[in-house]
Design goal:
This protein is of the alpha+beta class. It is built from three helices and four strands. It has a four-stranded antiparallel β-sheet with strand order 1-4-3-2.
Length: 109
Amino acid sequence: MKLIVSLLMLLVFFAGSAHAQNEENSCENVKIPDVTPGMFECLKEKLQGYGIDVPPGNKGELSDRGITGSFEWDGESNLTLTITRKPFFISCQTVGKEIVRFADECKSL
């Protein structure tokens, strides 16, 4: 479960370069509303706890274990995650659900 979460978390804050994007393995953006500064920091800390290098600031690219993507937080409440590449055996629907579940864990703290 921890491996799946870390893979999907990568999806949350992850990005590869434009030439690495694969249309078949990319997903629609995942938008998470009502993300407070504390929640955003919690998400970043949790990812780092899984061994994922998270860049400083409100936007960036991440990649780990076959998942690449990007994140952008507007600094107030809206977090957008873009998955540009993922393993074929993980559906975009699964990725979206896991990202929301992961974010909900930080909302409840």
